[in-house]
Amino acid sequence: MNGEQARAAWLDWLARERRASAHTIEAYGADAALFLGFLTHHLGDVPDLAALGALRPADLRAFLAARAAEGDSGATRARRLAAIRGFLRHMTRHHGMAALPLGALRGPRPKAPIPRALTPEAARSVAREAGEIYDPARHENAPMQAARDVALFSLLYGAGLRISEALSLDLRDAPLPGRADALRVRGKGDKERLVPVLPAVRAAIAAYLAERGPGAPEEPLFLGARGKRLDAAVAQRALREFRRLAGLPEHATPHALRHSFATHLLGAGADLRAIQDLLGHASLSTTQRYTAVDAAGLLATWKKAHPRAG
After folding, report:
1. What is the pLDDT of residue 113?
2. Which of 42, 139, 193, 255 is catalytic?
3. C-beta of residue 87 within 8 angstroms of C-beta of residue 32
4. Catalytic residue among 7, 258, 259, 264
5. Which of 188, 237, 251, 273 is catalytic?
6. Catalytic annotation present for 290
7. Which domain of life is it from (predicted)?
């Protein structure tokens, strides 16, 4: 059995036994074809089953390096490696090929995606107008839900909180006018941090509490329609409905408000270490991703404004 016959047998097995989708079969087949084409040049001959069984981790690393030189991203190379592992494993289990010592081979680590921030205008629109989706004719207690969403999204954008951090707050934590300037937040790893709260955010929360009504200090700050702690999925759905109503981009999500908080602070000249503390990042390298966002924004502005950018 030569390499191409082995590839065909594997793809047939994926289709019949694993019920893989046509898209998966096409992608994996292309990955295996690239690999076999590389081996033909790398080994000096079209590989057969014996040649495949004699491969070493260095051969796969050479393939990944060649794909990187061709412009494959880390994520693409990781996917190709996963497909090739599956191909070779199938040959070992079903066609008697010698087992390969590939257990220690690690694929490239995909880079963390660059956060996608909203424009300041879009972020302010969410923070001020998100409650417009609630119609008293369709929604029970629409004024409370509208005020709640404005308060919640104002807090996410104005203080850079994670949605889980905001929804874990109780009434005793509510940053109201006249209270301490900073909100104590419990974030990842059960770490606490202090986050300053803008007067506009305090006013939005006060307006929401006026609609919500009084409660015990240990009750949730943000309530759902049934009086329980608001679920993150409900908040995400509300913002999804608002962004369609307002014509905002698809990446307008609750977490994008946190990204926008950091990006807009950085663009205004805030210190990266200070932003790290405000966001509650354990590592500065996580916060440094926002420098790429800001640089991309500066480049886009330059291209729009500079007379010779075209």
Report:
1. 63
2. 255
3. yes
4. 258
5. 188
6. yes
7. Bacteria
Dump pLDDT digits (tens) for 3-29: 999 999 999 999 999 898 998 999 999
Q: How far apart are CA 46 and CA 57, in angstroms?
A: 19
* pLDDT bucket at 306, cuts 50 / 70 / 90: very low
Count of domains for the chain: 2
pLDDT band at 103 (very low <50, low <70, confident <90, very high): low
Question: Are 68 and 153 in the same domain?
Answer: no
95-133 core/surface letters (b: 16 or more CB in 10 A; e: else): eebeebebeeeebbeeeeeebbbbeeebbebbbebbbeb
Helix (H) / strand (E) element for 193: namely strand 192-196
Classify residue 132 by its DSSP letter: G
Does residue 190 surpass a pLDDT of 90? no
Residues 6+ apart with CB under 8 A from 237: none
H helix or E strand, kind and range, residue 127:
helix 120-129
Give the per-residue pLDDT at 88: 93
In terms of domains, do 293 and 205 share one? yes
Distance from chain centroid for Cα 121:
22
Tokens of 231: 């679920």
Catalytic (active site) residue 162 = yes
pLDDT at 66: 94
Same-domain status, 194 and 301 = yes
Confidence (pTM): 0.61
Q: What range defines the domain where residue 192 resides?
A: 120-305
What's the CATH code of the domain at 286? 1.10.443.10
Q: Which of 67, 90, 148, 162 is catalytic?
A: 162
Would you state the torsion angle of the CA atoms of residues 231, 232, 235, 237, taken in this order, to the nearest 10 degrees?
-100
Q: Which two tokens stand for residue 51?
A: 């040649």
**Residue 258 falls in the annotated catalytic set:** yes
